Amino acid sequence: MIKIKGLVKNYGMLPVLRGVDLHVRPGEFVTLVGANGAGKTTLLRIVSTLLRPTAGEVTIGGWPLPAYADRVRQHIGLVSHHALLYGDLTAAENLHFFARLYGLDNREGRVDTALHTVGLAARQRDPVRTFSRGMTQRLTIARATLHEPDVLLFDEPYTGLDQEASQLLDDLLRSEAEKGRTILMITHDLVHGLNLGDRIAILSRGKIVAEVARESMEPGEFLNYYATVTGKQGDKRRNNRTNGQQNPPQ
Description:
By secondary structure, the protein is of the alpha/beta class. The chain has one domain (2-216): P-loop containing nucleotide triphosphate hydrolases (Rossmann fold, 3-Layer(aba) Sandwich), CATH 3.40.50.300. It contains 9 helices and 10 strands. The strands form 2 sheets. A 6-stranded mixed β-sheet has the order 6-7-8-3-9-10, sandwiched between helices. A 4-stranded antiparallel β-sheet has the order 2-1-4-5. A hairpin with a 2-residue loop joins strand 4 and strand 5 (63-65). Helix 7 crosses helix 8. The radius of gyration is 20 Å and the shape is globular. Residues 233-250 have low confidence and may be disordered.
């Protein structure tokens, strides 16, 4: 469903993505992890048609980007750092607005179902500017899934959520995966990412350096593996030497 080959993105003289290769099969849930600055958000912005690559190939459902971005947008739902909601409109008004943009039938029923799914039916007449971070994120997810897209893209969706909201998001993600949606999610929580996805891909220094199937590793094993393939163990040893500390036993 998502095919990325040799993807390069430079900002002026600064290379951010250095030849990324990643394939996500239809109905697969892939989690993308990596350190800050690894290029995760840049990659997702390209896949979501918001950013043009410098070089390489990206296709969504067989449609190459950016040439067919207008057609691809009809089939993707995006949850990013920006909610893409209107603060002076109510929750219901926001969803009705996006339902009209997508030309959806039975808008009233779809909006009502979406609000109940994310637990906001009781607050549907309240302006979004009065919502907490968690409530705003829930409505953002309702907005992203309203048109039942084939592909869902999540950029750090758990940021700022309390335990209850995080559990609700877990349930929503699993529900969408069971419906056969293709999901690509960025998260800084390595263990959570491993537990949720079918596969986890590690982005380091602008390249995919490893991919791990969920059932192939226990969380503790994965944390050690992640540190090894991203060079974190080496960084830790260098820091220890700099601080006059001995390396821990291996």
